Amino acid sequence: QVQLAESGGGLVQAGGSLRLSCAASGRTFSSNPMGWFRQAPGKEYEFVAAMSGGGGTTYYADAVKGRFTISRDNAENTVFLQMNSLKPEDTAVYYCAGKISFIGGVVYTGKDHYDVWGQGTQVTVSS
Fold first, then answer.
1. What is the pLDDT of residues 100-114, one digit of tens each?
2. In terms of DSSP bridges, do strands 46-51 and 121-126 run parallel, antiparallel, or are they unpaired?
């Protein structure tokens, strides 16, 4: 069974940093596009960052560009989201997602493109 499990969320002051991890199990995701999304209370899912299969291409939402970095460790079958200079408006549940139906160098920003989702990890940024 394919599963994704996020970790690393927590409470941080504005200006601080957190590193989220997304560990995959059940298969290797090294060649599959991966993404991070977030959902704040009362709001829709919002695209945050994406990486192509193999990791050659990344893409970020304007709201996080320059502050967040998506990366992957294929040996550990894990994707990361390094979040720096955090703002209160970054407060949300963060989800990682994988597109197991495609292998290759394409990034996907749409939620509906992804096949597998983690359970989410809460990030709270205090002002």
1. 888 778 899 999 999
2. unpaired
